[in-house]
C-alpha cells in the first residue's frame, strides 16, 4: 500500500512540476532574468528578442562615451530613447564583429510593486571581423516596469568609459 502511495505521489509531483515549467513564460520572468535575457539576445545578435524586452518610452542614460573616437557629450544630452539607442548601435556592432558577448552578473535586485531595479556588472568581449579582440567591464543599472507582457526594461544607466580594459595588457613598468 505504501509503495502505491509513493508512486502516485511521485507521479502527481512530476505532472505538477511539468505544468509549472511549461507555464513559466517570458511574462513570468523575474526582473533579473529579464536583464539576463536582454543581454543574451544582444550576444546572439537577435535585436527582435532584445527589443521585445524593452518598454515603449524607455531611456538610455549615457554619462560618457564608450569609445575613444566619439567625444563625450556628442549625443546631445545624457539621455536618449533606449530602443533607438540599440537599433542604431546594434547593426553597427553586429556587422563589424564576428562575436559580441555581453555577460551580466546580477549583484542586486529590488522589486517594489510594478517597479524593479537590477544592478549588474557587465563583462563584454568583442571579436572584430579581423580577429582583433577587446574586453571591457562596467556596471549597469536597469529600471524595469511590470507590464501586461511581463517585466520590461524602462531605463539603463552605466558607468562605462572608453576602453577601460583591453585584450593586451600594457607591459609592467616595474615601478611601485
By secondary-structure content and strand pairing, the structural class works out as alpha+beta
Shape: globular
Q: What is the strand content?
A: 35-45%
Secondary-structure arrangement, i.e. CATH architecture: Roll
Q: Can you give the mean pLDDT?
A: 76
Explain the layout of strands and helices.
Elements: H1 2-23, H2 31-43, H3 47-51, E1 54-61, E2 79-81, H4 82-96, E3 97-112, E4 115-128, E5 133-147, E6 150-158
Parallel strand pairs: 1-6
Antiparallel strand pairs: 1-2, 3-4, 4-5, 5-6
Name the features.
alpha+beta; Nuclear Transport Factor 2, Chain: A; disordered C terminus; 176 residues; disordered N terminus; 4 helices; 6-stranded mixed β-sheet; 31% helix
Describe the protein's architecture and organization.
With 176 residues, this protein is of the alpha+beta class. The chain has a single domain (33-158), classed as Roll (Nuclear Transport Factor 2, Chain: A). Helices cover 31% and strands 37% of the residues. The protein has helices at residues 2-23, 31-43, 47-51, 82-96; strands at residues 54-61, 79-81, 97-112, 115-128, 133-147, 150-158. It has a six-stranded mixed β-sheet with strand order 2-1-6-5-4-3, with helices on one face. The N and C termini lie far apart (76 Å). Mean pLDDT is 76; it is low at 2-24, 68-75 and 162-176.
Brief summary of the model shown:
The protein is of the alpha+beta class and 176 residues long. Helices cover 31% and strands 37% of the residues. It is built from four helices and six strands; from the N terminus they run H-H-H-E-E-H-E-E-E-E.
